[in-house]
């Protein structure tokens, strides 16, 4: 995350603002039990939601997009690795205002047809261009993820739809708004909290009138910084007082509710949503760079199986939970199968042969820095999970449903192979492609579920097992807070214990253990109360 204090404050307020939309945004992901039709714009919001919940659930350990922020020991190890591999340690994450400046500086490089618009095709090409590294990669990834809202920030195009692409005017508008917001947010913090508010509510009526604010601005006992913040609040006084509509008659003063509501509304606007996408994508991209300084397919080349673990699977901004849940489960049940399906061609490309369709292998380039910020994140276990995700997208673009291909092409420009993995799907089909075997899906209420799990996960021939939660009326989470319309892996079953045994469930979002965004160990009874169905790989 950005190191400057103002951007940190802005991010904290972004998290508070996103609480209202958390439940509705989570339901954009795809179900394992049924195909889900999710727009690319909705899917970009998943990153913000996932990041927020990861940080809330993790306690003192922060996460961003499911990637752990490193402690000093890990940072030192990265520095040593960078020195050994002659690879520079990535720079800090840009602030949003810095992003706007960097994007303008890169504009001509990205605008290959020189029409002064950054269209989907050009941004897709930039995402796949490995010459964009470090902060340039952060910028490119953020431009791509925010393109649909970024292009609306200025009315500078010929059509009324204003969707021909991102322009310099859009970036300049974003930069102005970001800079203003980065100063307004700490200014508003001067009024937040009962103690702060009461300092300026001198008549203690629960409201700060303009006269009270003006008097405070002239109070020389206040610090110069506080007086500057109050000036900023005064400049926005008329907008702030109407944020919550909590006065009888005309709104004339600032209440504590106005303060909280104004900050919430600020980040629910198109500019606010765009800022959230930009900051989260840049942070995620840098974490991918930190995790993967050597960019090996497997972090342990001499023993690849040691690197093939479910923890390497960390879903990005597209709706391919159904596929990544199957990959994660396969990594737990049969890591050798993953090792066998990827061939390193030694020239920066990989050929992936899916056991379910050996007649149609696909060859792809290694994921770029920008792609690791958008899709399955760069990870300390190597790039293999990202390679499998990109290969699946390429496979879908060549052999998938024609309607899926047409839709992805229309929404994303159709030039980033990984995007084709993200239009929703079924874990049964993904499992069959990854294993070359059939599948069987049963209800979680099946009376024989415990014995089925025992055979699948505790026998000599372990099977790939996934699960999912169907949509629920009036709720986007299950009884215990698991996101619905979402796919999960089942990686372990312990038949002993209360409640019918213990089931280990992993969310492909890949957040901390003991959270619904990461890996949880729950009783079979609790599992059946939350999940809808279970898909088993059928042994040969």
Give a brief description.
Helix content is 48%, strand content 10%.
Keywords:
540 residues, alpha+beta, Recoverin, domain 1, 4 domains, six-stranded antiparallel β-sheet, three-stranded antiparallel β-sheet, 48% helix, 10% strand, globular, disordered N terminus
Secondary structure topology:
Blueprint: H1 5-18, H2 22-26, H3 40-57, E1 63-64, E2 67-68, H4 72-85, H5 96-110, H6 120-127, H7 134-150, H8 168-189, H9 194-200, E3 208-209, H10 210-217, H11 224-235, H12 237-241, E4 253-254, H13 256-266, H14 270-291, H15 304-307, H16 321-333, H17 335-341, E5 342-344, E6 349-352, E7 362-365, H18 369-374, H19 384-399, H20 402-412, H21 427-435, E8 439-443, H22 449-458, E9 465-469, E10 486-494, E11 502-506, E12 519-523, H23 524-530, E13 533-537
Antiparallel strand pairs: 1-2, 3-4, 5-6, 6-7, 8-13, 9-10, 9-13, 10-11, 11-12
Describe it.
With 540 residues, the protein is of the alpha+beta class. It has four domains: 5-29 and 41-176 and 270-291, no CATH class; 184-266, Recoverin, domain 1 (Orthogonal Bundle); 304-432, no CATH class; 438-537, Cysteine proteinases (Cathepsin B, Chain A). 48% of the residues lie in helices and 10% in strands. The strands form four sheets. It has a six-stranded antiparallel sheet with strand order 8-13-9-10-11-12. Strand 1 and strand 2 form a beta hairpin. The longest helix has 22 residues, at 168-189. It starts with a helix and ends with a strand.
